[in-house]
Amino acid sequence: MTIAEAQAIVDKWINENGVRYFSELTNMAILTEEVGEVARIISRQYGEQSFKKSDEGKQLSDELADVLFVLICLANQTGIDLTEALRKNLDKKTSRDSERHKQNEKLK
């Protein structure tokens, strides 16, 4: 699925199942919460923290999908074409950073 298709699918889902989009501020809070859940899993799976009983059944893929869903909601409700936004962002990063990381001794 393309990014544009994902935006359309989420919009359709919201209109059919979610009644309406939450406000932008509510979705920003939800996005922050979902990113926190990703951080929790990563800190336990790849970091030094140990898993708790409440972490059972939590999957990084599902939590990342939650982040993506809310990010798409925010893009949809603010009129942002994520395909074009990502294209422009990659162009910016390429012009700004194409040599920068090659010179980073920490990455060698």
From TrEMBL:
Highest taxon of the lineage: Bacteria
CDD domains: NTP-PPase_BsYpjD
Transmembrane domains' residue ranges: none
Record SUPFAM superfamilies: all-alpha NTP pyrophosphatases (SSF101386)
Annotated ranges, domain NTP pyrophosphohydrolase MazG-like: 23-100
The name this protein goes by in its record: Pyrophosphatase
Annotated organism of origin: Pontibacter oryzae
